[in-house]
Recover the amino acids of this structure.
């Protein structure tokens, strides 16, 4: 589970003057589901393409199973990729698409057919084996694309935003298909996406990238509860970020004075200096609301701006007197006890332990 | 009310269509019909007289020299098409896959330039290059080769055909291949396809329609060309266009020339039709 399958060793990639990837230094463990997430242009697709050999690193080394892969041609690698556009061959049937890689590897006709049909069956689209690609639906094409890569029985499967073209309800279904497959096959999945929900729903570990650099690597929970820096905190969203000056330090807590008030935060292991600026986050779902001023250190008076319902969850958007924006996430049935309207003033509060101090930078 | 507005739209559309319909009738359908009629006319005392006799058809189609010429023309136009498609492919491939967008734009612009000057002028310029005392033989002479006879041979004819067709074929092939989704080529590489094998496995299947259309154009232009076989090929083995010229000159046999012309048109119709059917053919088994 924990042996490194892939090592990115100080990898850099430049296109002319443009630096796509600044310095990548991370490992992909055998058998894990790793998501690489970041805003568009952050270098996540370039990272995946380097792993597939479609781009060569400008500096640094990529090692697979301990072997340096920099000069290995894409067709000599065993790193099948599921493309964002699916990239199915329109002149071949579903089965011929799945057979393509085996044919290139010189597998004989009978075995090719057998293996292709086995995988089409596994993906639940056996009945469409002899259909033209253009006659298949989005979800069916998706399954052909997966079968085409998995039929190679690779050690590692690369996925480049494969679900971005699907309808929302299909995305949820395909997520389940992918996690089940990954668990069943035990092979390593590297999944590039800009969607937080996809990454958090499926991945064992998430790599957050920004501006060609790794901002944080960790489990979805780590990244959600303890973002390493402001970039991650903002990217992950549904976070309240406050910045201010450190006014008082004790052993394990600090007082931070912000325009929105004075708050106590646990210092964890972050180095804070009195008089310097610091930022901290509170996840939107850890904030309580009340009509009356609550007791305790951490409270802010805010005006309700709007509400957003997603199923039984509701997100409140609020603003304090200084115009700083707050978000609160809670169950709809809890909120209904309050009978709030836009413009109403309420108090927000949270436990000191809910706050998380950010490393600057 | 709706039928009235529907009619007025039809008149509007018809007004725009009329010029092209007129044009087609006056300069294409009309002449073709007249030519078909003419192929049944008779020539008496060097003058054409209206008639409806099959004698021109039976005379022409029973002559060995007609069929020699016919098959020679089919052959040389096929060779021309094969040469043009093969010579153009590496250039078009490089322009489509290796060159930058701006290089490709410039290349296509430069490929259009040959059409600025008359084909006849371009053909004559080959005399300077290909004649016994021409540029090519002079250069070969330095390394002790030649002189080679290149004019008035099949080679000369082919050089002329290439002058006519090659720029067009390169343009058509380039545009076709430049429109291929590059991701599909990368996907093939990702699945273990060697760089050169992608041409056969992915690029040719994806550009089939465009390549067949380029080949059809090349065949039609070569098949009907008079200049290259006449001036560079020396018309020793007459192609059909030369046969038409000879037939009209010898004894004012316009009706027999019409027979040759109709045979040419039928051949080109058959070739173009088969080609386009092939280009747009659905895969068998496709539902």
């Amino acid at each position: 589970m924990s042996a490194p399958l892939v090592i990115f060793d100080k990898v850099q990639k430049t296109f002319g003057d443009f630096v796509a990837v600044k310095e990548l230094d991370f490992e992909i463990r055998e058998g894990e589901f790793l998501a690489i997430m970041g805003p568009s242009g952050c270098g996540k697709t370039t990272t995946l393409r380097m792993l597939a050999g479609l781009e060569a690193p400008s500096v640094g080394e990529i090692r697979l199973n301990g072997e340096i892969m920099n000069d290995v041609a894409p067709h000599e690698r065993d790193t099948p990729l599921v493309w964002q556009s699916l990239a199915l061959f329109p002149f071949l049937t579903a089965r011929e698409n799945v057979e393509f890689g085996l044919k290139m590897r010189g597998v004989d006709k009978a075995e090719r057919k057998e293996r292709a049909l086995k995988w089409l069956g596994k993906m639940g689209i056996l009945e469409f084996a002899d259909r033209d690609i253009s006659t298949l639906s989005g979800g069916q094409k998706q399954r052909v694309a997966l079968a085409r890569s998995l039929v190679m029985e690779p050690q590692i499967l690369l996925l480049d935003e494969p679900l971005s073209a699907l309808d929302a309800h299909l995305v949820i279904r395909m997520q389940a298909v992918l996690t089940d497959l990954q668990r069943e096959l035990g092979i390593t999945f590297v999944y590039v996406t800009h969607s937080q929900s996809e990454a958090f729903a499926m991945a064992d570990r998430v790599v957050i990238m920004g501006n060609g650099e790794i901002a944080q690597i960790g489990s979805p929970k780590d990244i959600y509860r303890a973002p390493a820096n402001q970039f991650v905190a903002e990217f992950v969203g549904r976070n309240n970020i406050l910045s201010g000056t450190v006014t008082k330090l004790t052993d394990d807590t600090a007082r931070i004075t912000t325009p929105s008030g004075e708050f106590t935060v646990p210092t964890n292991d972050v180095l804070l200096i009195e008089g310097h600026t610091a930022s901290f986050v509170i996840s939107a779902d850890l904030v309580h609301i009340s009509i009356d001023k609550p007791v305790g250190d951490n409270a802010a008076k805010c005006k309700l701006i709007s509400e957003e319902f997603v199923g039984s969850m509701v997100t409140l958007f609020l603003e304090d007197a200084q115009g700083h924006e707050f978000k609160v996430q809670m169950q709809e049935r809890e909120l209904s006890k309050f009978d709030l309207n836009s413009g109403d003033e309420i108090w927000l509060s949270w436990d000191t332990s809910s706050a998380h101090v950010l490393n600057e930078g | 009310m709706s039928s009235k507005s529907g009619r007025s739209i039809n008149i509007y559309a018809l007004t725009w269509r009329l010029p092209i319909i007129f044009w087609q009738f006056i300069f294409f359908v009309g002449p073709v019909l007249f030519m078909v009629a003419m192929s049944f006319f008779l020539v008496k005392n060097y003058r054409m007289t209206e008639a409806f006799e099959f004698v021109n058809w039976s005379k022409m189609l029973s002559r060995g020299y007609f069929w020699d010429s016919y098959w020679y023309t089919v052959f040389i136009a096929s060779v021309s098409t094969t040469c043009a498609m093969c010579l153009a492919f590496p250039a078009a491939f490089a322009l489509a896959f290796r060159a930058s967008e701006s290089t490709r734009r410039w290349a296509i612009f430069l490929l259009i330039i040959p059409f600025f000057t008359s084909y006849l002028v371009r053909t004559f310029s080959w005399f300077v290059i290909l004649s016994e005392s021409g540029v090519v033989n002079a250069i070969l002479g330095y390394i002790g080769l030649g002189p080679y006879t290149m004019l008035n041979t099949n080679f000369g004819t082919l050089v002329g055909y290439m002058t006519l067709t090659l720029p067009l074929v390169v343009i058509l092939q380039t545009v076709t291949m430049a429109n291929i989704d590059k991701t599909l080529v990368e996907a093939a590489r990702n699945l273990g396809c060697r760089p050169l094998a992608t041409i056969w496995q992915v690029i040719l299947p994806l550009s089939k329609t465009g390549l067949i259309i380029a080949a059809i154009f090349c065949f039609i232009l070569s098949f009907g060309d008079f200049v290259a076989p006449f001036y560079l090929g020396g018309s020793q083995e007459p192609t059909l266009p030369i046969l038409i010229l000879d037939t009209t000159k010898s004894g004012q046999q316009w009706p027999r020339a019409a027979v040759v012309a109709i045979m040419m048109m039928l051949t080109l119709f058959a070739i173009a039709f088969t080609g386009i059917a092939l280009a747009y053919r659905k895969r068998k088994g496709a539902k």
User: Anything to note?
Assistant: Chain A has a mean pLDDT of 90. The two ends of chain A are 32 Å apart (CA to CA). Chain A has two domains: 4-225, 238-357.
